[in-house]
Amino acid sequence: MAKRFVDTALWDKPWFRKLPPAEKEAWRFICDKCDAVGVWEADIEIAEAFIGSKIDWDHLRNSCNGNIKIMKNGKWLLVDFVPFQYGELVDTNNAHRSYLSLLKKHGLSGAGQGQTRGCQAPLDKEKEKDMEKVMEKEPEKEQDKELYRAIEKAFLSKNGDRFTNYGKEGKAIHGIIAKAKARDPVDPVGLVKAMLDSFWALKQSGDKFYSAQPFTPSALNASGIWDRVLETMRNDTVDPAILAIIKGAPK
């Protein structure tokens, strides 16, 4: 029996709340019945039989905040399934290799083909050079510049003072800043600090999911990890040692 993480914040998301009851069940059915990388065969007849209701599938696809993509072969892809369940996939992780192999089988791992966010194809040399410019481009506002440098320094301090791909990590730092400002426009700096501390504490806690994640900006910026760390910070049942680190973080 496959066991999967469930997004407990799903009910707080406007797009999900607005779905009719039957379409909410359809979304949950797809999440349960898709394969290990979020691909569903789209067996409408079986789905409606289990749900016990006719579903407006076009409405569901168009109302789920871009979380469903129809593949060329007609199968459905849950776009954020991989990063939410596994974080950033790396081929040096034995547990991740089977998922990478399945993605390749679906045609989701090659350059120019459909990919789940958080599972990116290698960049060619010219594209990598262009991406490195992102690292050099600093935010316009002084506060953002300082936050950018602080995030960069925090991650580099745990990574031997270097990133494998500076372009990718620089872009991710911008993403972290944007997420923090959207979540807490009053004190994004405080939220970022709490998220970094919490992410590092979780990685060191022995948890299998977090210990498999690289401590990089791109890993934290992945929606599956960012949302999960944020939810952990709000959960009163978290290990006291971790709570002590993130005490005072905005809820």
Characterization of this structure:
With 251 residues, the protein is mainly alpha-helical. The protein folds into two domains: 1-121, no CATH class; 130-246, no CATH class. The protein contains 14 helices and three strands. Helix 9 (166-183) crosses helix 10. The longest helix is centred in the last third of the chain and has 18 residues, at 166-183. It is globular, with a radius of gyration of 19 Å. It starts with 13 loop residues before the first helix and ends in a 5-residue tail after the last helix.
The pLDDT mean sits at 79
Could you describe the largest sheet, including whether it forms a barrel? 3 strands, antiparallel
Which consecutive residue ranges, at least 5 long each, have pLDDT under 50?
110-136, 241-251
The topology string of helices and strands comes to HHEHHEEHHHHHHHHHH
Radius of gyration over all CA atoms, rounded: 19 Å
The overall strand count is: 3
Number of helices: 14
Structural class: mainly alpha
Portion of residues in helices?
55-70%
Percentage of β-strand residues: under 5%
How far is the N terminus from the C terminus? 35 Å
Fold topology:
Blueprint: H1 14-17, H2 21-33, E1 39-40, H3 44-51, H4 57-63, E2 68-70, E3 76-78, H5 81-86, H6 94-105, H7 125-136, H8 142-156, H9 166-183, H10 188-203, H11 208-211, H12 217-221, H13 223-234, H14 240-246
Antiparallel strand pairs: 1-3, 2-3
Helix pairs in contact: 7-9, 8-9, 8-10, 9-10, 10-13, 10-14
